[in-house]
Write a structure and sequence with these properties.
Helices cover 80% and strands 0% of the residues. The chain is mainly α and 233 residues long.
Length: 233
Amino acid sequence: MAIIISFRINIAYARWWEARGQWGFLINNCRNFGIKFNNYIGFINDADMKNYISKFPILLTYHLRGDTNNCKQVINSLGIKYNDEHLPNLLIHCISNKINNYRLQGVISFEQFILLDPHIVSLVDILGSCEKILNTTPPQGFSVFTRFALLFYILIFPFGWINSFEYFIIPIIIVIIYILLGLEVLAEEMELPFETSYNNLPLESYSKTIEINIIQIAKMQSSDFLATSGSSS
């Protein structure tokens, strides 16, 4: 029984931890992308890009939760036209299109374009990894088997120990049921890391962090740092 429960928890935690790693990578990627874009072009010259980067995590959250209506509201708030497209992909396409246009217009150099492009690729990779976690759930048969194994274990446990514990077997079996079923419920929640229960990832908090970071980066101007360094020298 311990082997079964341990395997169940490890599988669930691995999915939860992989999802947490992808969102940690998303936070860092958006920060790096925002800093480079602000230095090369400036959010003051392109407010749309600031909104695109800051709203992407929010859009991804709704997408992973299957909330189509809120996904459409985010896209509408960005002023992007859509039909039946994959909306996160559509937003990444708009970001890529803007960067490529800046290269074609000579606003940024080819070297700067090369430095920005990997961040766009990373957005696609993170989106794909999160969809893989969402769509590739553990086999349902294993979950059913674990529940039946728990049920049989709970039913036969008292017969093996009633002579030793007598009536004390009742609180003992209650504790055992609480622990084993609690681990099973915890594993069920961790297998779906993008949902809204207590044991799932706080995607709203991550999205808000990225949005705040991008707004703060947008307020940073290269001229301010140059002026500060010039006065100190």
